[in-house]
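Minutes, project check-in

Agenda point 3 was the complex the collaborators sent over. CS summarized: two entities, 681 residues total, and the question is how they sit relative to each other. Sequences were read into the notes so everyone works from the same version.
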Amino acid sequence: MKLNAKWTSYPYIIWMILFTIIPLFLIGYFAFTDAEGSFTVSNMEQAVKYIPALVKSISLAAIATVLCLVLAYPFAFAMSRLSFERQKMMSMLIMLPMWMNFLLRTYAWQAILEDNGVVNTLLTGIGLSSVKLINTSGAVVLGMVYNYIPFMILPLYSVMTKIDKSVLEAASDLGAGFFSTLYRVILPLSMPGIVSGTTMVFVPAVSTFVISGMLGGVNNYLIGDLIETQFLGNSYDLNCGSATSLLLMVVVLVTMAIFNHFSDEDAEEALV
Amino acid sequence: MKKIVSVFLCMLLMLSSLVFCVSADGEDYEYDAEYYSKFKGQNITLYVYNWGEYIADGSDETMDVIEEFEALTGIQVEYTTFDTNEGLYSKLQSGSAYYDIIIPSDYMISRMAQNGMLEKLNYDNIPNFKKYVDEVFWNPDYDAAQEYSVPYTWGTVGLIYNTKYVQEPVDSWDLLWDEKYSGKILMVSNSRDAFGIALKRLGYSMNTENPDEIRQAADSLKEQKDVVQAYVMDQIFDKMVEENAWIAPYYAGDYLTMSESNEDLAFVFPKEGFNQFVDAMCIPKGCVNQEAAEMFINFMCEPQVSAENLGYIGYSTPISAAKELMDEELITNPVAYPSDEVLENSETYRNLSDETNKLMDDLWIEVRIGTITLGFWIAVGFLAAGIIALCALQIYRKRKRLVARNAVK
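CS then shared the predicted structure for the full assembly.
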């Protein structure tokens, strides 16, 4: 029996039209209309005023993404060199925190970082002075790294398992040292993993509102918090909320486009 | 060893069943069996949408109200919770969910009624309303013709502080602006409550529609930001009990729950005035089992049920008959049931015009974003540098690749 490959994609295409394409058009529609439904650009003008919050979100998300990459990259490589059984166990351990509710995990960090929290109780217990941990940008970045690092490790790992041992041996036979192998062999071959991991961490981090709300204090009002205020605030401001979401979406799309550009060329190179 | 463990477990089981019997026996109450049996065996399900932690659920030896209702009437209840009036409003507005009974607050009820989102109640089906609900709660501001709602609880918003750290006498909202306690002050994160407090402190009404007054309130909230630790709602519980913060505005009922865990906490009704709210049961438009829903509302007005609920929640009951069944200590507590003189100083929220709501929210976002600081320009600089570096790297690699290809050719 011949399986028509075209058909197999239909369920997802229907899903995507219903829950991605149509909502996208709705957001576009709301962003450029007022409460009565007539065309206006005033929502967009207002959304532009919120660029400080957007810049803050992008900076924190970028820092978190870089930290995730730095932490995850060596780990994913080491993991991909383990025996099959060990690899299975490791990937389960990475997924383990995700079995718990996202909100609960962030809430636990609050209890750890508080002024009278676990860390500071320990510090004062051994005679050190307490440090200010919660309600800082650092706490928000920590929350982002903690929550999203599995999304960096897993794509990196799945690309790195495909790097054959013989390729590394060949590199070493030809006289490549550690850094040379890393830069000329492993890095280009794992580029698709870096790109998808970066996207999978950056995109949710830039739009988060739970983490900043719980760990960020007064000075970390991110674009996600702002959109939440617009949709769930007093005025139920669909139009401005949509305009801000649209602005965020454009920024995320541009970032993703830049990264995808990287990935295309490297994939090309890897094939050559 | 194994034997000892099993004996111990058996004893534990027996003990717990004993406790269960006592609590089940102790609270017998007669219901109007004929009225409540109307829908028996008809397989009706009611969808109830209530605030979180807002009904007695059988823990701490309270009655499991939902279970009691199901057993009495044979109607199934699907119970879910929300955490803000605005969240409830947008959920109903979007039409994405179906509910038979919702429990919004006063100003939200008038807003929903104005927008035609509520079904008119048939009070003949809710005999307990006239029978038990105190007359002061009839025809309230938010439902002047008494068409849409039956009060469930009421309460106040006041100032909670920790007497261990705040030793001076407190009687004013000014405490929330006091630089002495910088970093230990919490503020509510929803715009209406935050502006309500700021307006009262300036001597204005919480329901003002005057843009100048609202702008002044926004300015004073911007001033306050320097001393605030965080803008939060439910987290106030943990932060106050664990003494990570010392001062916060919150609901009187929740203060009672908090003070059980931390005895140093005190509560005051600020002299400038404060908010009094009523949460009432309503039926949203499009309800298909209205009579059954009205039966549920009627059940919630049974004095015994109200006493159980309010004993659990810690808020105040609009049903005097219920007070007689409640803990003496609670009903004489001046925080839960303040005197009429104190209440004279309170103000209930009215529904504001769309323009005022919009102005308030826009100003609130302005407060939360804050002014553009040096940090903003540094971040912009770094991001720009990052993008330029990426592009440069990209161009460099492209060149190199081109050179390599030409060399191969």
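Noted in discussion: Chain B touches chain A through 47 residues (CB under 8 Å).
Follow-up: revisit at the next meeting once the mutant set is ready.
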